[in-house]
Structures are given as C-alpha cells and as structure tokens.
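Our consortium's second objective concerns turning raw sequence data into structural hypotheses that experimental partners can test. To show how far this objective has progressed, the report includes one record in full. It was chosen at random from the queue rather than selected for favorable results. The single chain below, 460 residues long, was entered without modification.
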Amino acid sequence: MATVTRENISLLNDKIVVNIAKDDYLPSFEKALKEYGKKANIPGFRKGMVPAGLIKKMYGNSVLTDEVLRAVEKELTSYMANEKLDIFAQPLPLPENDTRHIDVSSPAEYAFAFEVGLKPEFTLVDLAKSKITRYQIEVTDQMVNEEIERLQIRNGKMTDPEKVTGDDNVLNVTFTECTESGEHVAGGIHKDNSLLVKYFKEEFRSKWIGKGKDDSLVLKLSEAFDEKEREWILSDLGLSKEDPAATGKYFLVQITKVGLIERAPLQEEFFKTVFPSKDIQTEEAFREAIREEIKQQWDIQSRNQLHHTLYHEMLNNTLIDFPENFLKRWIQSGGETPKTPEEVEHEFPSFVTQLKWTLIVNKVVTDHQIEVTADDLRASAKQQLLSYMQGQVIDEDQPWMTDYVNKMMQDRKFVEETMHRIQTDKVFQWAESQIQPELQQIGAEDFNKMQQEHQHHHHS
C-alpha cells in the first residue's frame, strides 16, 4: 500500500515523498501489458497472437515505468487534495528520482520525491488607515474655450482665401532644404506638408501675414518652431530629434495653397451636431455641457490615478512571504527551455511582484465574494459596440445589437479578457469603499506634471 510523507525544508517549502508498493502498480501493469499484446504488430506473428513473454521482454520496462509513474501521480494528487495543500505552480520532481532502477524482472517498492511551494497566509493592509489623496482637477474657462474652438474648427467649412490673415490659416507648403541665404542644397530634403500658422512660434507667425500662393520664406527649424511642434516637423521631414544638427537646418518653405476654416457658428444646429442626444438651445447651456464633459474626462483620469495609488498601497504595504528558492527553481525549469540562473535573477523581481498582486486580488475576490456575472459581460459587450458608434443615438433593444452581444459571449478571448478587466475594476471599487481620501484641488498642468514625475520615478 502506498504511503506519503511530508517534511518542511524551508519557508513555505515542503518535500513530499511518495512510496509505491508492488500492489499499487502491478495490477494496472498486467492490464496494460495485455492491451499491448492485443495491439502489437510484430513480424512473424498475427495481430493479437504475440506471446505474452515476448511482449513483456520487448515492452515490459517501458510499460512498467509508465504505470509506476501513473500510480505516483495519483497518490500525490490524492494526498494534496486530502491535505488541502494550496501550492504554487506544480510539484517539482527532485533530482534524486531515477526511473532507471525500475526493472520488470524484479518489481519492488519505489520512492519518488517532490518539492512544493506553499501559498502563504497573509493579511491585507488596512486601507481605512491609509492616508490617500484624491485629486479634483479644476476645469477652467480656458479649457472650455479651447475645446469649443476645437469643435468649431472640426465642424467648420474650408475656404480658399488669397492671402494669409491670421493664426487659423491652413498652409499647404513645400519644404526644400537650403542654405541660410536660400540656395538649394543638392540632394537635400524636399517634402510637402500642411500645417496651421499657429503651429509656428508666436514671434514668427507675423512673417506669413499677407503672403499667398507661391510666396516663400527661408527659416531655421529651431527659430521657427517651439519644441512640441518641432518634434513632429522633424519626424515628418525624416530627421531625428536626437540629432543636434537637425534643428539647425534651413528650409525654403513655399506656399502652394492657403486655406481657412470658417468656424461653425455657436447656434442650435452646431449644438445638436456636438450633442445629438441633448436638447441644447443656448450658448450658455452648450458651454455648461462642454464643461461637464471635460470634468468627466478629468474625473476618469483622477480615478485612474487613485486606483494607481491604491495598487501601490496594497502591493507595498501587504506583507507576504514567498518560497523564493522554490519559485526560482520553478522559473528556471518550468518553461519549454531551461533558463540560466542569471536570467532567473533578472526576471524574479517583476515575477514576484505580479504574483503578489495576483494573490492580493484573489484574496479580495474570495473574502468579499466579488463575482463577474453574465449580465456584466453582456453589458460590457454592449458598451463596446456603443463606443464604436461614437455617440450615435440608437435603440439598444434592436435585434442586431442583441445578435452582436450573443456573438461576443461565444468569443472565449473576449470573455476571458473582459472577466479579468471587470474583476479588477470591482476589486478597485471595493478598495475605494475602504478609504476616506483627502480631496485636493489641483490644476491640470500640475496634475499632468505629477503623473509624469511618478512615471519617471517608477521607470528609473
């Protein structure tokens, strides 16, 4: 009869030894050998009529080894289930295991040893005691005005004036690389482009006023464009922003066409175009709707930032022990190709961080009975479709929408990815419910700067 023993060898790291007696594997061995005899196709013998002794001689050791290992696996699995062992990955066979001593001519007792890494018990950080800030981004009149201006231009009409009159003129131009005096550079860059006058430096824009088709200016990239616009101009011209000489190049920029977008007037037709599902009749109501939309966009960013803070709060302040040596050995041997010790050491920090977060999420899900329902998945599929419709007003009960949702529910990849996303969302909703954050007003520029500094800190 099989016996299983277990001993602790290090933190959360146990050794399990499975001892197999002859009675545990011989009956299944004899049965398997008979099946081989029925199917064996050996020259000189009819199928199914090969002598049992020959079958045993030819296949005995191989079949016996398979049956012994099968019996070991069965006992190991049964033992872990009965003991309710919660382990990482799979048991690792120890090097001392050797199937070469299994001999069909002298069946015996065999012992096989395995190493397991045990999942730790741990307590989540008490979020109620955490000092966390939730930022409220101020929506300024300038933000509202800039968004309205953008929408007016987007929904405006293009006209073809003869001359440049201001910052909103669109210039179709040709960039030709030249010297400071305007002479063409042989083999230099020659590229068409289209850009607004406002993309040039403020002090440079006046040079375009009054100019029309076929007029030109010689400019130096570093003097004509601020850094933000200069980067995409360099890219469009096939130059690298990392090349210090690139911004010092001169170009003859010739106008091939002048355009001007007449902005959409602030009237009811425009309001309906921007907000088709709302009844907006006045400029004041339109501005308020724009302000609310901007606020919602910033609220999403603020909430994402809060979730990021909660992630680090739970990850950094929840103490969890790991069987590190076992996990490193598992990483080294668990893949299709073995890894070197150096590769394991390099990968381990990010691996254990991800593992820790998985344990935290699983604990929150289990302890607080968080579920992702079929209704959640269907609602997500419907929302995905509506996002494709870009705000169009449609009847959500139309048959074609139901068909789309039903089709997505049969897509295994969609279901798995959506379940994971919704579950993570619900974990953060739970985390939000545990805190009493300090509310702090902040400007958009300061908020963006804070996030950039945080990202730089975590990537440096």
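The partners drew two points from this record. The longest helix spans residues 283-317. The first strand starts at residue 3 and ends at 10. Both points have been shared with the crystallography group to help prioritize constructs.
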